[in-house]
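Quick start: what a row looks like.
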Amino acid sequence: MPTGVILIIVIIVLLLLAAGLVAVLVYSAALRTAYRIFSRPAPRPPYDKSPLTIDQNTIYGRGQNWFYSNRMNVLDWQMTAFDGIKLYAYYLPAEKKETRNVVILLHGYNEAPSVMAAYAQLHMQKHDCHILIPHLRGHGMSEGKFVGYGLFDSQDIVMWMQYLETRLGPDLEIVLHGRSMGAATAIMTAGSGIAPNTLTGIIADSSFDALDLLIAYLYKRDHRFFVRPFLTLVSSIVLKRFGFPIEKDSPVSIAANIRVPVLLFHGTEDSLVPSSMSENVYDRVRSPKRICLIEGAKHCCAYNDAPEKYSSEIDRFRDSISDNEWQRLIGKA
């Protein structure tokens, strides 16, 4: 065989081996990305306990300290989700047991449900209401091997709302208040078309507009490049391994279905979830809406950095939610 032909064959073999190696490396990277994003971020603890240390330099830390200082007054509820896993929640009854107002607080990714205690204080001090803080699937005491990112969680929240009706009665007025992943969950719940009529409004702090866009943004931010086929590969792995369709986890795509007032918060210096994502959701919402951008605030820091403004916006929202005055408040703050 001529030397030239042998050389060509060797080159082709080397190219095929190199291509195979690249394919293996790309698939391995996509597999690691899929598991890093969707696997439960921390093992389920054997029992619920206070963190060993709580940073009380933030409003959220002081809220957590208040929560665990009053832990004996908090009830633990549980139910079974649509796919059979056990879900848990904290329930704080209102001072007036006959009140029909309920606020469901939804935490973010890899957060303890008790981080929402600061928001519970805010609502309970200003407006007499019952508080429910679900442990979202894959978090806290709730079961689940993977994270729901609002898509599966929205189904869980509908069930929690129905559960509240069985415990407290059918004539409730429920407000959803979430941050980050919890904010996306609130939007997905309100836009799902299956939320009970007891839902009267949502407050979404630092929500993403679509999970695939967020993953692409974060990957490009951290690695300085992003190739769309890579996300397609990650999506196919997630669908096969977790049964999770990433492309359907899109609050912005169903925001137009929302039929209750919406209040959005976002920090302008949020490097994890850009404030433009909340603005995209705001632009799609057709119901009464208002967006409040907190100048200089980072991810989920709006309440800590501007507590008076945050509180006053919620006061106006709660006071006007069933009033024609809400129409006057529509717009950007």
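That is the whole record. The first strand starts at residue 75 and ends at 80. The chain has a mean pLDDT of 89.
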